Amino acid sequence: MAPYEVRVATIPEGLPQPSDLAVVETPVPVAGAGEVLVRNRFFTIFAALRSLLGGVQGAPMPPFRVGDTLFGPAVGEVVTAPDDSGLRAGDLVQHMLGWRTYAVLPAGGWQLAGDELPDPVAHLSQGVTAYGALTRAAPVRPGDTVFVSGGAGSVGSMAGQVARLLGAARVIGSTGSAWKAERMPGYDAVVVRGAAPLAEQLAKAAPEGIDVVFDNVGGEDLRAALDLANPGARVALVGALSGQLDPDRNGSEAPVEIDTYRLILKRVSMAGYSAFGDSEVRTEWIPRFAGWLRDGVIDFPYHRVDGIGRAPQALHDVLTGRHLGTVVVTV
């Protein structure tokens, strides 16, 4: 089978469509001195690609231009590696050059995917973001009530479970889909955007208020959660789906009006969090995740898409909220 890459064909207006991307046949690349050649086995599709396709500036990753190959978290099998790299042909590594059959990784651009996790696909779980935010930006304490906005996505579907394992007494999630609400793991209650006023649903689900907010969405979800924040509540801002998935915006902003005076009176703390580049939290997460998987107390919900040629449609499906959990493309 010939190698392929998925490239930007046109800069989208509104939400990206499959036709904005092109699946292009390419030769097998050649690794240079100090580089590692891998054949990708899996990669994930994440919603933040919409912002990069919209030209957002200031993110940890650069915006795309026409002709660029998309990228994202991947697991690949080593084909060739320098003698001093410690890698052998057949080893599995994690890296950020998904969306292609073969990838050439620079020194330091990969991490060995060890055998601690029972399934190599589990290395693509976004649980590290959930774990990092709920242990650092907004630490969960025993007995807390935790609200996770966007609780059915790749991060949120892990955050509810992680919150529970860290000691939360009650975990509430939000989603825009009644179908997902019935299937989201780790939640005591789920509020559904559009089913009834979100603030009313959340007030019923959290009658004693909210201690920790894990915010993937912003917008109405964040405003409703802050209205119910208990004194000393902690808020981790990890996503901005209300803006990224808005077809009338370019994915680079997610404005929301909040009453900061009330936050001051309640001593609510808010912090943005990203696990990107946080090697310490990743080192801590893997053994905890592996132990929880072995004990059967956590799941990695994901939807499998077979074939790189289906990746453009899979991106559109992610951005329109079709699937529960992480979307994993097998190459």
Automatic annotation (TrEMBL):
Transferase recorded as keyword: no
EC nos: 1.3.1.74
Pfam name, any one: ADH_zinc_N
Keywords assigned: Oxidoreductase
Keyword Oxidoreductase attributed: yes
A molecular function GO annotation: 2-alkenal reductase [NAD(P)H] activity
Domain Enoyl reductase (ER): 14-329
Origin superkingdom: Bacteria
Entry-linked SUPFAM superfamilies: GroES-like (SSF50129), NAD(P)-binding Rossmann-fold domains (SSF51735)
Protein name (Swiss-Prot/TrEMBL): 2-alkenal reductase
Source organism: Actinoplanes lobatus
